[in-house]
Design brief:
5 helices, about 0% strand, about 80% helix
Length: about 140
């Protein structure tokens, strides 16, 4: 019943919310660091390093996520970044790499362009996230 759906969603949020927060931190730190680099060549070189480390660390973790957890992760990255995560990724990865991430999202049957709707479709998730963040769950 509904109780089971709620319990499952609580477990899902608890599993992927920390990852979403980490990813958002990486996006912000990377973006800020790129701003300090003198030219495109230096930026591209740094992005290569970041990409490699992300792949190394996150690929095994992503593989452990279910389809619904993958979709939820993308929504929560969107929530954490308070903007389209696609837009943010595109801002520092460029359109080609953003296309790669878009493909990653499609693998989960989702889209990075999907909005997070705390007052609509994602009402339950938002409630759970706030409770988890407040240490109530």
């Amino acid at each position: 019943g509904l109780g089971d759906v709620y319990k499952r969603q609580v477990l899902n949020v608890k599993k992927v919310l920390p990852i979403a927060k980490e990813v958002n931190k990486i996006i912000i730190e990377t973006y800020e660091y790129l701003e300090t680099l003198p030219n495109k060549k230096a930026k591209d070189a740094h992005m290569k390093v970041v990409e490699e480390s992300i792949k190394r660390e996150y690929t095994p973790r992503m593989k452990k996520l279910s389809y619904s957890q993958g979709k939820l992760l993308i929504k929560l990255i969107y929530r954490e970044s308070n903007s389209s995560s696609y837009g943010l990724i595109q801002a520092f990865l460029g359109p080609v790499r953003a296309g790669f991430y878009q493909a990653f999202a499609w693998a989960f049957g989702s889209s990075l362009k999907k909005r997070y709707e705390p007052n609509g479709a994602d009402r339950l998730v938002e409630r759970i996230v706030l409770q988890v963040e407040a240490g109530q769950l």
